[in-house]
Amino acid sequence: MAENALADVKTLSFERAIEELESIVKRLEDGKVPLEESVAIYERGEALKRRCEELLRQAEARVEKITTDASGQVTGTEPLDVQ
User: Which PANTHER family does the record cross-reference, listed alphabetically?
Assistant: First the structure.
């Protein structure tokens, strides 16, 4: 079952993954979740965090920087260096 739960994380949109991650954080912060369940939802939270990071990296790779010449005229685009 745990493998299925983690597998479905790989299909979530960024918005859905972040929403679920926020829900998990809130539940853990409330401190009313039994230990075993806390561990399980923490592990899912880690998977959701990795999914969000992966989707953000993909989005960054698609962003392009607009280039201009000395007079400010647009000359094209190049990959954005986000380091």
Answer: EXODEOXYRIBONUCLEASE 7 SMALL SUBUNIT
